Structures are given as structure tokens and as C-alpha cells.
Amino acid sequence: MWTAIDWLRGRFTATPAPNSPAPARTLTALPDGTRVEFDHGSFDAWCVYVTRPGQPRHAPRDTDYFTTLRDLHAQFPRLQEDFIAVFSRTTAQIDPALVKTIGELASCYPPAVRIEVHLLLATLYAAMIAEENREYAPLGKRIKRLGVHQILVDGWAVAAAAHFSRGKPWRELDALCRARGF
Fold first, then answer.
1. What percent of the chain has pLDDT over 70?
2. Which of 9, 29, 130, 144 has the lowest CB atom count within 10 Å?
3. Cβ contact 105:84 at 8 Å
């Protein structure tokens, strides 16, 4: 990733850094036209953005998708199993087969929530890919799984789970993940 200082000093190249997606790379487009994308954020090229038709693009926060997860899980407990299925197949690389599987999982939900489930699972998938590609993030995707576990299994408030890991040593978080089997 380049900075304004790099550009001013003539070190800017249009070539993305290794292991970085091209700007505004679409992970998936949902049937309603909503897109989940990667683009440059404040510190890397793996910021997740959601663009709904007719609305400005935004970067969802953990509290946004954790709230949706909690609310949908109250109606559809199998959502946790579907998340774990996506989690278990997530790597640092985008897997088109897994993107397709997410759509297939979402199609098993009632029509009234199908798009919302699809968007939720796709956003969580993108967030886990981003964590796998983040420098100095030894927990990778497991940090998202910890938050999901804290909300759905341990009954934590969304904000508490979303902010729990901030400032904590990674070894402490790693031990918590391992104790929970992931």
C-alpha cells in the first residue's frame, strides 16, 4: 500500500502490494444487486465494503454484522452451523466455490431473510479473509470466531464481544480460542 509521502517522493507504483486485491475487488454480488468488496482502507488493502443499490458504499463494523447475526440466530439457530461451515473453509485466498456455497446456504432460509443471511455470511467470510491477510494478526480468522462464540454460545452483549480483543495480548486470545476448540 502506498502513502501520499510515497507519491510525493516518486515511489508510487500502480502495482498492488503482494497478496493484496486490486482496488474495489468484488467478492460477491447478491441477487438484489448488493456487492461485498475489498478495497484499500485505513491500513491495508483488505478493508471490507458493502454497497447496496442506490446507497453509498460503507465498511461494516463488527457490531453491525454481530447484531445481525444475533438477531437472525434467535430465529434460525442453524445459522451458527452455517457460519462454522464457512469458517472452517476460509483461508487467506478468495475461494469462488465457497462464495457459491454461501449463496446456496442462504437459499435454504425463508425468502424474507434470504438476502440478509447471504449478506451476513458473505460479509463474515470477507472479514475472515481480511483477518487472514492482515499483517501482525497471528489469530487470523479465529478472532471473528471468538466474537461469534461469545455472542451465540456465551451470551455476551454484541458490543462487549466486538471490542473484547482490543488491546489484549494475542497469546491470551489464542488460549481462549484453543479452550473453545478453535
1. 87
2. 9
3. no
pLDDT at 119 over 70: yes
- Containing 37, the helix (H) or strand (E) segment is strand 35-39
Burial state string for 40-78 with b = 16 or more CB within 10 A and e = fewer than 16: beeebbbbbbbbeeeeeeeebebebbbebbbebbeebee
Domain ranges in the chain?
A: 22-136
3-state secondary structure of 46: coil
Residue 27 backbone phi and psi in degrees, to 5: -80, -50
- Chain Cα centroid distance, residue 147: 12
Mean pLDDT of 151-155: 97
Question: How many residues are recorded in the chain?
Answer: 182
Sheet containing strand 35-39, strands side by side:
25-29, 35-39, 47-51
Helical H segments across the chain, by residue range: 4-8, 62-75, 78-89, 96-106, 111-133, 142-152, 158-163, 170-179
Q: Is the confidence at residue 133, as pLDDT, over 50?
A: yes
Residue 135 has pLDDT above 80, yes or no: yes
How much is the pTM? 0.86
Q: Would you state the cell numbers that stand for residue 16, as one nine-digit string?
A: 498492488
Residue 130 CA to residue 115 CA, distance in Å, equals 22
Written as nine digits, the cell of 104 is 446456496
> Cα 147–151–154 angle (5° rounding)?
105
